UniProtKB/TrEMBL annotation:
CDD domains: GT_2_WfgS_like. Residues 8-139 form the Glycosyltransferase 2-like domain. This is Glycosyltransferase. It comes from Massilia soli.
Length: 250
């Protein structure tokens, strides 16, 4: 019988054979091995399920999960046994082998409910420099200045019991909604290291539907404006500028 894992890594898949190998290899290479890996598959018809079947270690496969990405991520959380949960999608992979060891140490020292590091974006074969990390505060988060990259976020499972799961009505900004709920109750630790590589390609939701994503993000942030109204006003100015740019590009 395996001991209860410290980490649950949730990987959502759908015909992901082209990229899933990098995801699996990056988890297998971690020096911290108290890991449960949950795969939430939306009905893959390529070699995705074969790759998962051949993957060694403590794993669980949830098959034919329909209902969108938010529902898939929530299913992973509902089935998780670990103390800390991360979502590492099948497009993404951990940047180095000591990510989980670093996260475990920071949770033990800082006694926080959630923490995040940085990402690097891989686009058209080019690995870009890390995104600048703005000092975290709830006001900075509400204003859209604090960047919280979902592939580099780790959340204590007990925190989901307090703030709830991802809003399954949302398609693009479900992570921002969750960070605003978490941030209102608990300040995270911010680790100045790259944790994850994020692939930006034509199939990425945030890339393929940038205008819709921004519109949904505005709606989400408006939900939370009562907690930081001035910060929301700052965000509105940034939103209008960005929407003009996106419409010109379109």
């Amino acid at each position: 019988m395996l001991n209860k894992p410290t980490f649950t890594i949730v990987t959502c898949t759908w015909n992901s054979a082209a990229t899933l190998g990098d995801t699996l290899a990056s988890v297998a290479a971690q020096t911290w091995q108290d890991v449960e890996h949950i795969f939430v598959d939306g009905g893959s018809t390529d070699a995705t399920l074969d790759l998962i079947d051949a993957y060694p270690g403590n794993k669980r496969l949830l098959r034919d999960v329909q209902g969108g990405i938010s529902h898939a991520m929530n299913e992973g959380i509902r089935h998780a046994s670990g103390d800390y949960i991360a979502h590492l999608h099948s497009d993404d992979y951990y940047f180095c082998s000591d990510v989980l060891a670093t996260v475990a140490e920071r949770f033990a020292v800082d006694k926080v409910d959630w923490l995040f590091g940085n990402i690097r974006v891989l686009k058209e074969g080019v690995l870009h420099r890390p995104h600048p990390m703005h000092p975290f505060s709830y006001r900075a988060l509400a204003a859209g200045k604090a960047f919280v990259p979902h592939p580099a976020v780790f959340v204590r499972k007990a925190a989901f019991d307090r703030v709830g799961l991802f809003d399954e009505r949302l398609t693009y900004a479900m992570d921002i909604d969750l960070w605003l709920r978490l941030g209102a109750l608990a300040r995270p630790s911010m680790v100045g290291r790259t944790f994850t590589v994020f692939r930006d390609h034509a199939g990425s939701l945030s890339s393929a539907n940038r205008i819709k994503a921004r519109q949904e993000e505005f709606s989400v942030r408006r939900r939370h404006l009562g907690k930081a109204p001035l910060a929301f006003g700052v965000y509105c100015l940034r939103y209008l500028k960005r929407m003009r740019q996106l419409r010109q590009e379109a």
